[in-house]
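Final report, closing paragraph on structural work. Over the funding period we assembled a curated collection of sequence-structure pairs, and we close with a single example.
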Amino acid sequence: MKDELTNRIEDIMSLLDAGEKPRFYECEQFIELIPAFTEKHSVEETREFLEYMGSPDLNMKIIHVAGTNGKGSVCNYLSEILRQAGFSVGMFTSPHLVKLTERFCINGKPIEDNTFCDIFAKLLTSIKGYKTGEYFPTYFEFLFFMAMELYSEHSVDFLVLETGLGGRLDATNSIHEPILDVITEIGMDHMQYLGNTISEIAAEKAGIIRNKVPLVFLNKRENSTEVIEKRAQEMGAKVYRVEPKFLYDIVPTPDESGNICIDFSYESQYDNYCGLRLQTIAKFQTENAAISIMCTRALRDLGIKISEDDIRFGLKKAKWGGRMELILPGIYVDGAHNVDGMDAFLESAKEVPCNRYRYLLFGAVSDKQYHLMIRKILESRLFDRVYIAVLDTARTASESQLRAAIASETSRFEDAKNIRFSYYDGVKDALMDILTDRGAGDVVFAAGSLYLVGQVRETLGILPGN
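Its predicted structure, as stored:
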C-alpha cells in the first residue's frame, strides 16, 4: 500500500511538472489511501511542518473549538453570527457527510472542487520537499494542513477551527495562538484514546487552553468543570462559563412554512436574550447556541463589534446538516454516535409529531458504545420498527455484532419483544425497504453515526446544504 501511495505521489508530481493539476477524484482517492501507511505525529512535529509552510496561522484570527458533543454545531452557529456581523469567515470541521469539500467552508459554503485540487497540489509539493520526503502526515493532519493552506491563500477575517479528536494532542493544537478557545459538552467517547472517566477526557480537551487566551466552556458536568477551570487558572485564561440552567422558555414552534423550530431565551452573567429562534426541532441545540452567544461576549470584550441583532439573525439563519435534520417530509437524520448524543436525539424525537408509527434506521461503528445506544433506544419505547444496517466503512459494527447487542439488550425489556427488527448489509437496501413500508402519518428517523447520515443523504441524492 505504501508503494501504491509513493507511485501516486510520483504520478501527481509529474502532472504538476507538466503544468497540469490532478482532478478531484484523484485527490480524493489519494487522501483515502493515507491511513493505510502513516502514523500520528506529535504536536511538536506537526508544528514544525506548519512552520515549514510559513506559519500561516500567525496571520489568522482563529477560534479553536474542542469538546465531545456539539463542536460542529457551535462552529456553525458562531460562523453565522460573525457573518451576520459583516465578517468573512472560514470554518474547518469534521467529519464530512458526503464529500470532503464540506470540511472546508468559506462564508457558509464548501469550497469548489477546483480550489480543493489547487490546495491539495500545493500541500503535496510542500510535503515532497520537506525532510527529503521522509515525512508524511496522517489523514487528518493532511486535511488540517490543507485548511491552513486554504485560509492563507483565501484570507478570512476569522477562522473557526474544530479539533479532530481530543485536544491536547490534536493536530489543530499545533497552531501558535488562537484568539479564543471553546470547549463544548464533555461526554464518554473515544475512551480508547482519551481516558475512561469524564475527568480524564476533560483533561485532554482542556489541552487546547492557551496562556491568557479567553476560554468559553459549557458548565454541564461537575467533574469536567473542575478540570477545565483548574487548567484555565494555571494558564491565566479568562473564563466565560455557559450555564444550561439559564436557558428558558424552550418551546417548539411552527414557522411561517409550518416547519418546527425552537424558540428559547438565554440569560448569562453578561447579557439577557429573549425570543431567540433556531431552525431545528432539537432542544439540545439551545445549549450549543448558548455557547456561541457566550463566544460573542468574549469576542466583544476583545473589541470585536457584534450586535444583538447579529446574534439573533445569525442563529435564526443557521442550518447544520445531520443534526436532527429534516431532509425530506417525515424523514429526520441525526449524527448521534455516543450515549449522550443518543439521549439528546431521543429527547428531540419525542417532540416530532407522529400520527402513526415511528421507524428507526440504526447503524454504528464498532469502536463506539453501540450496545449502550441500543439500550437507550429500547428504553425510550419510541419506535415500532428498527432497521439495522451495516455501514459502508471499514469501522462499521458488523451485523453479527449488532445482532448480539440487540439480543442482549432486548432481554432487559419485556415490551421490546414487540419491536420488529430487520437487518441489512447496507444502508441503501434498508432505506429502500423503509420507504416502501412506511405509510401516511409515519415518521422515519436515522441515527447512530455520522457515516449513516452521510450514506442516507447520498442514497437519496441530498447533498448537505440542499
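The chain has a mean pLDDT of 92. The first helix runs from residue 2 to 17. We thank the funder for supporting this effort.
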